[in-house]
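2 proteins. here.
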Amino acid sequence: MEENEALEFKRSTSELKEAIISIVAILNKHQNGKLIFGVKNDGIVIGQHITENTLRKVSKAISDHIEPKLYPIIRKQKISNEECIVIEFQGQDIPYYAYGRAYKRVADEDRLMSAKEIEKLILEKNKEKLRWDSEVCKEAKLTDISSKRLKWFLKEAGHEYHSVKNSLDKLGLLKAGKLLNTAVILFGKKSQQLFPNAKLRCAAFATTTTSLIVDRQEFEGDLFYLIDKAEEYILKNIHIGMRVEGMRRIDIPEIDKDAFREAIINAFCHRDYYERDSVNIAVFKDRLEVRSPGGLYGGLTIEQIKNKMVSRRRNEEIADMFHEVHFVEKWGRGISLILDKEPDADFEVVAGIFVTTFKRKHYVSSPAQMTVEKTKVEKFGEKFGEKFGENELKVIVLLKHNSKITVLELAGKVGITTRGIEKILQRLKEKSIIKRIGPVRGGHWEVIG
């Protein structure tokens, strides 16, 4: 036998005070556990002399010195032919205190908890009662609900519309006639007036860092509107390829649309709405990040959501409404879907923010890759009897990878001023190496040959 976070050994009842502390520490970590008197901490069974008075003494100590009250199973048991006392205990009324102080189990040690840890434990205990999405929005009235948005939702979900009040009541979004937060943030005419975090922030950057912003936008409104805007912003700021099927042109984004849409929906579905921060979209030259405040919920880890296909829903009401219109499934398959479409997608929690990252396929990521591309362009230049300078080569490579790249983006990538880029573009146009198709806004570059 070995000690662990839920199992503690004591040589004898002479260590009764330490045993009381261990019981409390285990309860505060796991809500159940076992303690055995008559075993050394290395697992060697030595037993001890036990009388009825010994068992009463143990029971009284637990009753007198643990709060809230605990009612464990205490019994004599032979282990390796030695008499031992086995105590099995469980309790959900955390935090528990031993001699007026709270402890927490860390490996096989009992550590005194700080005030901050106790506060966190109490909040965790009451999380089911403190769900933001099931709370009443005291300031909201039925006239704050958009009947147009509600009718759209009911049609998508296959339900009939009768009136705002009747429909919301059938959806379970009223409590004693009052609107729940979920009703307002999904169907509100101006959700942001009641919830400042009913917001989406988007930015596109010229490089792989936040040093140079090329575009920044903010959107406010109900969650369905914000999800659509997030999708539109991403499609506007990543590369779109195409294929032809019959007489139809099919657009193909460099990042699978279903994958990043799932990440967007997850961000709004599972975020912490007690946080004032917004869902953020960041488009870098090499990647797309979807950031959701609140981190993972219910003690889940990155490994579990990736490999076990399990989920814990922070916002049950919002998740149920999204399920009604087929935005999410109840089986926690969102991460699996993302990885199926984009196997290189990555997930991490940074400072309480859950980040989903997608690699951009058109990014020239390494010096070796750039060298290969330069060689191709050099050979291409030989057709024209041209020998390009280093910056000209970089510009041509970048134009071949992204025909809609801007002068500002080129400057950030090449590492020279925008004026220098304009001079290079002009020289390349004069030599008929490149040409501009369409206007400055909305047009694109074409590398000839």
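next one coming up
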Amino acid sequence: MLFGAHVSIAGAITNAPQNAANLGCEVFQMFTRSPQGGFTPPITESIGKEFQDRCKAFNQKEWAVHAPYIINFASANNRIRFGSIKIVREELERASLLGAKYLMAHLGSYKDLGHDLGLAQVAQDLAEMLKGYKGETQFLIEIAAGAGEIIGDTFEEIAEIIYHPKLKKYDIGVCYDTEHAFASGYDCRTPETVDTTLKKFDKIIGLDKLKMAHCNDSKVELGAKKDRHEHIGDGLIGLKGFQALLTDKRLQNINFYLETDHDKVEKDLAILKKIRG
């Protein structure tokens, strides 16, 4: 179990490994472009090699890419829909050049089409996005916090997508987010509730599909359906919750990535490492 954080690529994407090391990260996550859209800086093979050399130099063991926020595979607007397919496929190819282990994404919202039509479109579009992909980076769905008609806020909904007949051959994985899951009603504040949640995940999705986790405390109560990250131990999951989660042997090979504000991210990392011992 290794710990890291989401880091900046300001100046050049090759700055990210050093930015991660400066915070005390063992692993790190980043965007490769603005999460809100706009100019996309190119990634060439030479940039990819320099990036991976710098990851090695700064002793980073794993890195992942977060897809932009502007995507929605269930949109009724074809510009957004087909733009989502294009952008996420581009991000998989870019992440592969950088040697990233995973690319995780939120899939969007069913608000335009409703669940049934939306699900059919999501499956069709993800299959189109993954068709012919030969890169090393694995695509993951990130559990959502459950606001509105957001896609992927329950284990059942994630399973419905990754095991869809059009998608099951693509080995889509899952990125767990402690705050999002907590806001969606999955408790992790005690060893007992961690056990219940992990057993439920295993029964519905399968723990073999769990590849990485975002590590965030929560500003909102259990089941509040809001995406509100808090520093480790300062929120409603609390220090005891993270002790229960991080010491569960079923998660011993899962790496945890902070998405907390950088004002205290070094302290957050120190807390996680102390729990790990």
